[in-house]
C-alpha cells in the first residue's frame, strides 16, 4: 500500500508540470488514468528514496507531459491522481522528491508544484 501511495503522490506532483503547456484545447480528454499510472510507475523508487530518477521514470514523465496536450487531458490527469491519493499519507520528504521530478528529468517549469492543485482550474 505504501508503494502505491508514493506513486500516486509522484503523479500528483507531475500533473502540475503539465498544467501550463500552451496546447490548443479539445472538448474531451484522451489521456486515461491507466496511462497516467503506467507512465509514472517507474518513479516509485525515486519518490521513496530520492537520488537520481531512473531513465524509465524520466521517460514516463516526458511521455505523460507530451500526451497531456489539452486542458481536458491535464484536468483528467489531475483528477485521476487526486482520486488515487485520496486518504494516502505521505511525508514531506516524499513530497519534496516528487516535486523535484520535473527538474531531475530536465523539464524546467516556472512554478511550484503543490498537492493542493485545483484540478478544475488546470489549463
Give a structural overview.
With 123 residues, the protein is mainly α. 59% of the residues lie in helices and 0% in strands. The longest helix is centred in the N-terminal third of the chain and has 17 residues, at 2-18. The protein starts with a helix and ends in a 19-residue tail after the last helix. The relative contact order is 0.27.
For this entry, give a set of tags.
mainly alpha; 6 helices; globular
Topology:
Elements: H1 2-18, H2 33-40, H3 44-49, H4 55-67, H5 71-85, H6 92-104
Helix pairs in contact: 1-4, 1-5, 1-6, 2-4
Q: Report mean pLDDT, rounded to a whole number.
A: 75
The number of strands is 0
What is the element string, with H for helices and E for strands? HHHHHH
* Individual helix count: 6
| Estimated helix fraction | 55-70%
**What kind of sheet is the major sheet?**
none
The helix-and-strand class reads mainly alpha
Write a compact overview of the structure shown.
The protein is mainly alpha-helical. The protein has six helices and no strands.
Amino acid at each position: 500500500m505504501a508503494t502505491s501511495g508514493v506513486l500516486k503522490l509522484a503523479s500528483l506532483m507531475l500533473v502540475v508540470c503539465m498544467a501550463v503547456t500552451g496546447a490548443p484545447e479539445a472538448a474531451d480528454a484522451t489521456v486515461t488514468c491507466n496511462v497516467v499510472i503506467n507512465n509514472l510507475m517507474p518513479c516509485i523508487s525515486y519518490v521513496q528514496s530520492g537520488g537520481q530518477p531512473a531513465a524509465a521514470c524520466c521517460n514516463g514523465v516526458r511521455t505523460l507531459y507530451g500526451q497531456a496536450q489539452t486542458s481536458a487531458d491535464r484536468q483528467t490527469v489531475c483528477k485521476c491522481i487526486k482520486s488515487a491519493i485520496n486518504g494516502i499519507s505521505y511525508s514531506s520528504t516524499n513530497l519534496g522528491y516528487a516535486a523535484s521530478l520535473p527538474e531531475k528529468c530536465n523539464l524546467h517549469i516556472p512554478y511550484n508544484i503543490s498537492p493542493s492543485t485545483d484540478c478544475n482550474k488546470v489549463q
